[in-house]
Specification:
Layout (H helix, E strand, L loop, with lengths): L3 H34 L2 H31 L2 E3 L6 H14 L5 E5 L6 E7 L2 E7 H6 L2 H16 L2 H29 L12 H41 L2 H16 L26 H4 L6 H9 L3
Parallel strand pairs: 2-4
Antiparallel strand pairs: 1-2, 3-4
Helix pairs in contact: 1-2, 1-6, 1-7, 2-6, 3-5, 5-7, 5-8, 6-7, 7-8, 8-10
Length: 301
């Protein structure tokens, strides 16, 4: 058995360490980028900083609304979904955050997500499939999980990871193009005939996006474990949250089940459970194995 607080502290430390590794990796890619282009360390850092800043500002101010639009989420009618509003309002009051916007997605897959840029500008979206199969306690557990993402600023945390991963992908692409079509250029325009260095840069250019993706997935999984623990602590009922996950697992095992219609690789990390199904979505899942999540919750007290 493990306590809520032990699980939360463990996952907070691991996710912080992963984000620090992400930052170090990003810095290394920037320095390699500077060497490939022959612009020097300072020039490379400036280019990288401008790229990340532009990407981050756009994602910060527009990301939440774009996710809702991509997901085909519609603002929930308060009279029709009064019980959903009551749950979200009660949990928001309990953790002392501003009431998030409430949205519903017309989709049979039982799922939910939180998005936005901070605690005061957040949104909770749930699918009609989730509302149809969960009892009140299970629904409360799922919403508590999502509200924990809001309270812990996970929506911003994951934004940072996505920005780093996206920037690394763009820079790695530039490195590949420079090596394959432009060759290495040393300062002053002299071609560097170091074949080994060129090969290393080319390999890193191809592997960097994959490594960045794996780091982003690892961070996402840590935050999911922590949101499970925080959500269970918030309602003092880990078993209802485990029961909700069990229902989702059983749904996904049904051969007739379908993934969330408008979910994609970018938005999948936001969902309560993996909204995709089969193939590489399992290998590169943004979520821990659902059986492992259930097991951890059942062992909590």
């Amino acid at each position: 058995m493990t306590s809520f607080f032990d699980e939360i502290a463990r996952n907070r430390l691991k996710s912080a360490l992963l984000l620090f590794v992400f930052f170090l990796f990003f810095t290394g890619i920037i320095l390699l980028f500077a060497h490939v282009l022959g612009v020097g360390m300072l020039g490379g850092l400036i280019v990288g900083a401008v790229l990340v800043a532009a990407y981050a500002l756009f994602a910060y101010f527009m990301g939440g609304k774009m996710v809702l639009k991509i997901s085909r989420a519609q603002e929930a009618d308060q009279k029709q979904y009064h019980y959903l509003y009551d749950i979200i309002e009660g949990l928001a009051s309990a953790i002392q955050v501003k009431m998030p916007g409430v949205y519903v997605i017309n989709d049979p897959n039982p799922n939910a997500f939180a998005t936005g840029r901070n605690k005061n500008h957040a949104y909770i979206a749930v699918t009609t499939g989730l509302l149809s199969i969960m009892d009140k306690k299970e629904l409360q557990g799922v919403i508590a999980h999502e509200m924990s993402h809001v309270a812990d600023n996970d929506i911003l945390y994951m934004l940072i990871a996505v920005v780093f991963a996206g920037a690394i992908g763009l820079i790695a692409s530039s490195i590949r193009m420079s090596v394959m079509f432009g060759g290495f250029q040393a300062r002053g325009g002299r071609r560097n005939d170091g074949g080994l260095i060129m090969l290393i840069a080319l390999v890193i250019g191809f592997l960097a996006p994959l490594f960045a993706l794996l780091l982003r997935l690892a961070i996402s999984r840590r935050r999911e474990y922590m949101a499970d623990a925080n959500g269970a602590r918030l309602i003092r009922d880990p078993h209802s949250l485990a029961s909700a996950l069990t229902k989702i697992r059983d749904y996904m095992k049904n051969p007739q089940s379908r993934p969330v219609m408008h979910a994609n690789d970018i938005t999948s990390s936001l969902y309560f459970s993996n909204p995709l199904k089969g193939g590489f979505s399992n290998l590169f899942s943004t979520h821990p194995p659902i059986d492992e999540r259930i097991k951890k919750l059942q062992q909590m007290y």
